[in-house]
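Give me structure tokens for this 159-residue protein.
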Amino acid sequence: MRIVVAVLAVLAVIAGWKFYDGRQVRLARIAQLERECGQSFTIASSKLFDLHRRWDDAEQVARSTARIALPGPLARLQGIRQEVETLDVPRCANEAKAALRTLMRAREQAILTFMNREDARARESLRASNEQLEAYLEAMKAATARHLEVKEELARLRR
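Here you go.
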């Protein structure tokens, strides 16, 4: 009888340990997913979209500014790009942030080229930067899709 009780006690301890261990694994996975693309993605993507919108507004001003007066609008554009560079984003949004930064640098370069009176090269630079815009939009779409996947997995893990 004592042997049976001892065996049952050992089995209970093992079962408890496995439950505890499984819970720890689940909690670690939740933390990993949160870092990768959790709630912080919503905030970061909102900031990226806001910075892109501000960039578009400032770029419109630059496009309607005389060549000689472009240093002011260009400085505003560079300031917005610097905000993008310092923005912390979750891993799933790194590619979108990099694509936006590349787009901004390409457009800045086109403006600088225009300021140097190289109109044909400036037009070509602007056309080429449109590919960067597409890359940014695709990267944001992919990051948003990953965020939705992570949200679903987090909901499943928290049940």
